[in-house]
Amino acid sequence: MQNTDIQNALAMLARSIGMEPVDIKAIAESGSSRKYYRIVTEQGSVMGAYNANVEENEAFFYLTQHFGNKNLHVPSLLAINEERTCYLQTDLGDETLFDHVQRDLRTGGYSPQTIELYKKTLDQLVRFQIRGDIGLDYKKTYPVPCFDKSAVMDDLNYFKYYFVKPHAEIVFNEENLKKNFESFANFVCRAYNGAFMYRDFQSRNVMIFNGEPYFIDYQGGRRGPFQYDVISLLYQVKAQMPQELREKLEDYYVTRLKEEINPNKIGFYEFYPHFVYLRLMQVLGAYGFRGLIQKKAHFIESIPFALRELKILNESYPLNEYSELQSIIHQLFGLLDRYPSPPTSNLLPLTSHLTVTVNSFSFKKGYPDDYSGNGGGFVFDCRALPNPGREPQFKTKTGRDWEVAEYLEAKPQTHEFLNHVKALVTQSIDNYLERHFSNLMISFGCTGGQHRSVYFAQSIADWIRKTYPTVNVKINHIEQHIHE
Questions:
Q1: What is the pTM of this model?
Q2: pLDDT by residue (tens digit) across 348-395?
Q3: CA neighbours closer than 13 Å in the CB half-sphere of residue 364
Q4: How far apart are CA 78 and CA 47, in angstroms?
Q5: Residue 372 in contact with residue 294, Cβ under 8 Å?
Q6: Domain check: are 299 and 383 in the same one?
Q7: What CATH number is given to the structural domain containing 144?
């Protein structure tokens, strides 16, 4: 269904409930195939959604009604089209719990206000798990009614096929790993399996509306263990939660849980580390599929955070009883050099949604990958410019060294080239900021990816940071293995 057709269908739905659309704005897509729109009317705004998967929609409709009847914090359904592919729901705004986390990370740590929001979120989680389970017909959930051994094996194989196998340097024995997965799944499935399991309970799915947490994207929920969702929230890797705070919030959750059920009877702590492993492996599989295969930047950027959490966990709880899996996990730590974590200071500024990625590369090695899904952006060929690489004194230096910069800046061609580049880049950045685009890529190539391309990439990146202080700038000197 084309974007225009979707908007027309949503406009008709809005009119069917007496709301005349004034504007319809697409909301940035995340990892799902669903499309969301904010529909502005004279009576206020509502959220519209399109999803071609009717079975998934039916699960969402059923769960929304069920949770609403339990007074749980979910949006209200306002209208559904006959095809069951388009629907309207209350607008909970744009502010997520993860937005609070990002602001805190920029200013040095979790604030008391954000910690309080986490506690409120955990309060609601217990209500979802206990009260949400009562009277829920799991035959209507999607795609499965419960989190059983088959679901555990799916997560483990997701990790194997979409994250481990794409990294050819990870060596393992298929048969031994299969046996380890079987044993791991058998153990995990001994955990008590009598709660509503949200499945993707993380801070991006928690909307902060009138100071209270509200919840979205629960259409994949099913009956499952208590541990999985609290781990999904507290081990959300890009939230970078300090271990001390994580443990305090775990204790808070257990205290709240004790008001409903005895944690010892469900083996809460006995199975807890295994569920942490399971969640981290599942998200690495998702990052592999969405990032390495579908080339979506957000998921690529999340990989180092997940690897770091896995390393910390493995140091405290090694999986020695699963030798092949333990070997793979240990080998994965070697990937941390390939996926360096961006410094906290480089997180997206609050005043702009635009990230400009600047690359230097060698034409001999191929063009840089574009993980934003936008198709590449600018590619500038520096090979017609004077080449410092032909001068003996510059053989071991790069375009980041002052001697090379001095050599190039003495050439009139350098300034002419830079002025042309700045004019083109200015036009795009101004336009992208006005249209609220999220990504622009600018790449400079030369013969070896050492001198000219590095100099021009560094120069343009520094110029963008100075000219557009609200734009997030990332720079990758690919042949030099430098990422800033």
A1: 0.72
A2: 444 457 889 999 999 999 898 877 766 778 999 999 999 999 999 999
A3: 7
A4: 9
A5: no
A6: no
A7: 3.90.1200.10
